[in-house]
Amino acid sequence: RVAVPSSHPHNAVQNTAARRSGPRFVEVMRPMSDKIDTLLKEGRVIQPSARTKAAAHIPDYDQAYKASIADPEAFWGGVAKELDWFTPWTRVLEWNYPWAKWFVGATCNIAYNCLDRHANSWRRNKVAIIWVGENGEERIFTYGELLRQVNRCANALKALGLKQGDRVTIYLPKIPEQVVAMLACARIGVIHSVVYSGFSAPALASRIQDAEARLVITADVGYDRGKTIPLKPVVDAAVQSCPSVEKVVVVRRDALGVALTAPKEIDWTDWLKEQSAVCAAEPLDAETPLYILYTSGTTGKPKGVVHVHGGYMVGTYITTKYVFDLKEDDVYFCVADPGWVTGHSYIVYGPLLNGATILMAEGKPDYPNPGRWWDLIARYGVSIFYTTPTAVRLLMKYGEDWPKKYDLSTLRVLGSVGEPINPEAWEWFYRVTGSDKPIMDTWWQTETGAILVTPLPSVPLKPGSATRPFLGIEADVVDKEGHSLPSNAGGFAVIKKPWPAMMRTIYKDPDRYKVYWNTIPNCYTAGDVCRKDQDGYMWFMGRADDVIKVAGNRIGTAEVESALVSHEAVAEAAVIGKPHRTAGEAIKAFVILKQGYQDSKELIQSLKDHVLKELGKIAVPQEIDIVPSLPKTRSGKIMRRVLKAKELGQDVGDISTIED
Ligand code: 6R9
Predict the structure, then answer these.
(1) Which residue intervals define the domain Acetyl-coenzyme A synthetase N-terminal in the entry (predicted)?
(2) 84-92: which pairs have CB atoms within 8 A and are 24 or more residues apart?
(3) How far, in Å, is the centroid of ligand 1 from the Cα of 419?
(4) Phi, psi of 508 (to 5 degrees)
(5) How many CB atoms neighbour CB 42 within 10 A?
(6) Closest to 288 measured CA to CA, from 222, 197, 189
(7) CB of 540 shorter than 6 A to ligand 1
């Protein structure tokens, strides 16, 4: 093996900067007026430079894609061989529509591949995680240290009697303990269920109940734009209705600390203190559940998406490597929260499987000022930066002077995820970072586990398009019957064959899983509307169902509606997503009041407060209209599409089934 400097990321950064000087990425045509959007819509293509192509893991996408599709099992099997397995598989795939088993008969452990594989090599002293708190606090973990910490935590879980198949709910802010807890569970076959720390007590409780978690791991507080957000009281309120919870472990960050009630409540530091730093990773069948992650669907009840050790490991490993063209000396920065799937796959598992150096930063992009992320990029020499369209649009509002203040020359590859990125935001992001770093617009879902449609750095880009399917993935745009549509016709985005990182089921609800594969014949229906252009580039246009994306956060209209109708004044409610300049979509609610209640500012505020209390900040409607009636079908279903069309001043379409 070639020796690579592994001590501190700053060393790596200098090398990176030196190696990467000079133009690598050339625009075929530079927009010549300010009307960039108009120009981009003409179909401009941005070609990768010869140098980017030459350096890329996959220099020729077309050829690699064709080969991968000709024999997907050979392709995925080949990828899997780059990782460590305790026993090999007898078959790559067992497909019993719609049930998949990947790497049949093999045993492995994703945490082993994230940690031991590196800690047992020269990477032992390579930086795994640089964590920066909102208050500027910095903590650095090498692979060796992370492994020891995870082992202590795994032993502590065992000491509480947790064993393979048990569930642990993790409700933490973006701190390193989050990663430690996830990997510790994985190490011994315990299933983690991370709940985003912005969810309120009832939302947390329903997720703990569904998973029947034996343990909750939380913190005293989180920080948000300088404010202290108490988390422990939320857990206290939630666990009252969760009889499965035996213990609550609390990471104490605040100097004052919260009082803990023994024996049920345990301090994190005390919990780990006596534990050994050695704990062998459990060899697990490849199909062993790794985690449950709850996500919104079209009903009020969130779905517990289940991912497994083997296939998920293979999918997140190879997408991180190829999509971001990850190299040994990169510093990788993904801004997601580990509470969402992007945090699971592209802060924790994918980058660690690759032995990368990860920057993990708590806080918002504009606190304490809009230079926050640019400053982190310059300070730590970030070379890969994976962010969201909402964040880009937010930073755009503060102007180009902010990014201009910082040295962003270490950046090499950029990423976007969570919602469609409009060409204007794409172009801005591209320009302020130097007009030579390819933007990977990655399309995927909680259910897909890993990126499915995306450019690679060697692929020509069209701003606003997620381009083409990842290797081994057959994606298409079809009508309701599953027929491929001609170029540029809008239809449903589908995946035609199983892939390793796909979800295996919906926890305790296999029927809900089957819906994904039974809605359109012979394929996986993603729930997105899409068109494919003449070059096969895919343009995702939003959801086809009642799921909305507010600042990239996935929210079901039904969840917000059921929160609203649980307010004493509300008889009925309907919720839609409405275009919003920065957040992509905003929540608008239409509410019918019960008799005796009057429309007033106070009432509207009390409705918003109620949703905040029931679900959390991200689900609070921006606008609430009090209405006398709602459009319904004769069978009583609310026609949200009609409300939305009216709201946007569009044609309401076919309303022959409308009741009133
Ligand atoms: C990873 C994640 C999934 C939904 C998905 C789609 C939207 C995600 C996108 C995108 C257009 C992209 N979405 N990435 N739309 N372009 N690059 O966001 O997972 O929270 O489950 O949401 O997000 O609508 O169906 P999740």
Answers:
(1) 61-114
(2) 84/108, 84/112, 84/113, 84/116, 84/117, 86/283, 87/283, 89/286
(3) 5
(4) 55, 20
(5) 8
(6) 189
(7) yes
Distance of CA 98 to the CA centre of its chain: 24
CA distance 420 to 539: 8
For the Cβ of 549 lying below 6 angstroms from any atom of ligand 1, the answer is: yes
Within a 10 A sphere around the Cβ of 146, how many other Cβ atoms? 22
What angle is formed at CA 422 by the lines to CA 61 and CA 413, rounded to 5 degrees? 45
In terms of Cα–Cα distance, which of 458, 455, 453, 456 is closest to 476?
453
pLDDT mean over 278-290: 98
Q: Is the pTM of this model over 0.90?
A: yes
**Is the predicted pLDDT of residue 380 greater than 60, yes or no?**
yes
User: What's the pLDDT score for residue 655?
Assistant: 76
Is 415 a residue whose pLDDT tops 90? yes
Max Cα separation, the chain?
77
The H or E element containing residue 13 is helix 9-19
Residue 143 banded pLDDT, cuts 50, 70, 90: very high
Mean residue pLDDT of the chain comes to 92
ipTM: 1.00
Dist. CA 139 → ligand 1 center (Å): 31
Q: Kindly state the DSSP code that residue 164 receives in the 8-state scheme.
A: T
Taking the C-alpha atoms of residue 568 and residue 611, their distance in angstroms, rounded to an integer, is 12
Helix ranges (DSSP H) in 324-434? 341-343, 350-353, 372-380, 389-398, 401-404, 423-432
